[in-house]
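Hi F.,

I've been meaning to write this up properly since the lab meeting, where we talked about keeping a consistent format for the predictions we share between groups. The idea is simple: the sequence comes first, exactly as it goes in, then the structure tokens exactly as they come out, then a line or two of notes. No screenshots and no reformatting. I'm using this chain as the first example so we have something concrete to point to.
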Amino acid sequence: MEAALLAVDPVEAVKRSLRLKGNTLRVGKTAYDLGAYEHIYVVGAGKASAAMAHALEQVVGERITAGWINVKDGYMAPTRTITLHEAGHPFPDARGVEGSRQIVSLLHKAGPADLVFCLISGGGSALMTLPVEGIALSEIELLTQALLRSGATINEINAIRKHLSQLKGGYLSRLTCPAQVISLIVSDVIGSPLDVIASGPTSPDPTTFAQAYAVLQKYNLLRDVPPAITHHLKRGMEGQVPETPKADDEAFARTQNVIIASNELAAQAALEKACQFGLNSLLLSTFVEGEAREVAKVFAATAKEIVNSGQPVSRPACIVAGGETTVTVRGHGLGGRNQELALAAAPLIAGLDSVAIIALATDGTDGPTDAAGAVSTGRTASRAAQKGLSMASHLADNDAYHFFQALGDLIITGPTNTNVNDLIFVFAF
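Output, unedited:
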């Protein structure tokens, strides 16, 4: 797990992606003459963005004119020129709105002879909240609560967010045009689609008002979300509100988007470290998604297969997977998708010798908790029974946090200052 996190450390990721020689900055295959720009501004949002800003200052130095980054509480890093502004996550708050206004104010200064770095990572959707006219922050908060409890995927959630924002869905690039934009992105989305990561502030948006409205219909949320939101989406469907910027928008001609870290990179690093430890290792997939308790059945079945047949790898074994599951919240407990996956797996691997299933969020925060995830082993069920803990009751109440807290099996990392989705490990020693 340490190796996985180190591989997606945002400071190292930025330094890997930028090469400065004299005034020439190479970003991927593109070269920029920094001496040709009158001003260099930096904006962004996300859990990894503070560390990214720290690294960018180390590379670009005093050439930076000014900057503003919205970061999650506690996810700070030392900066000189760039202002770091703490705000709420996963639920947006007034600080995030004020910080987003500061970003807009800074971008209004950018002209055709200027360069804007945009530092984006997971969490940026909540942290860069600036609702369209006619929708209040309180209404966005209610929407976010309903969506996070519904079991909707991040792609579906962000399709709605993009159509309610002044910055997401490509609007940041449009606002910055005609300045040059370099967007450095730490991906927390399966497959790393640019338009979904932090709701794609510098990427064309392929989704529509109709698709956003369909998400609310799919999860029976039309009665739960504020009327102003459904009214705005309907107006968009009727053509009364312009669609989000699409691929042919001129703003994207001067925007370079670069993925600098991802779940795949973290998973590969974990796999390599497991091999160094002498474990028979396999990367199962970095596209894991679905309801956490259902996905748990697959990993529990994988553990049983290793024990009984030595397939797909023999003991000592380490299966690595990545992705992002969802939880449809029906109870009143505390937890996150990784803790729920680990709890759902516990009764399925009960009694298996030297077997463990571990699930963690790479940002160090699984759901609204201070835990990154949890550990289940073949002994979790018997240990829980000794303490009078009911796995079924805790799972029904979505209360995995208190279950694993009582056993001492929560994974507590604190803020990792990165965010590339979740990692799941199946061990059979």
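Notes:
The first strand starts at residue 18 and ends at 21.
The two ends are 17 Å apart (CA to CA).

If this format works for you, I'll send the rest the same way.

G.
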